[in-house]
Amino acid sequence: MTGPSFGTYSGLSTLLDMPPDRANRLLGVATTAKIGRHPIHPMLIPFPIALLVSVFLSDLVFWSTRNAFWAEASFWLLGFGVLMSAAAALAGFADFLGNPVVRSFGAAWHHMVGNVIAVVLALANFGLRLSAGAVEGTLPWGLAISTLVVLLLVYTGWKGGTLVYEHRVGVHPEEGEDTSSRAGRA
User: Fold this and answer.
1) What are phi and psi of 6, to 5 degrees?
2) N or C: which end of the chain has fewer CB within 10 A?
3) pLDDT tens column, 15-26
């Protein structure tokens, strides 16, 4: 009788029989910004993602209907999206700068640089709409920028998932374990 299957592993015996280097990679990498033992960055990121994707969707509805309500909605969603992005970025920067193991992963650099670009684009989009007006700033450049932001968020979200599910960033390290030797995988 075999144990339950967890992806490529089959029960606890497979974990115990695993080579030490593979088992070591299952340990977590601590984050710097946390409340208690819970990392802050993953608590905040759903907000800017939802807000910035909503900007894109309301831009599409405005493009289709030309109803000014949707351009105004995009403007406000964008403003709150930029504010929440700043909060998530602060926690993300603390994690990135506070643990050299996190910086050793190529996925962390891609995640960070891509998100910085996305936030700068969102801020520029907000500035465009602020100066030109919500309706006038939406088409064509507001929609184009919000499309780029969403595409970047898909990529950086993938890289963030890589950090958690492959490198176990933000997952509790075993008590007393040193995660500094885990550096180097991209």
Assistant:
1) -120, 85
2) N
3) 445 455 554 555
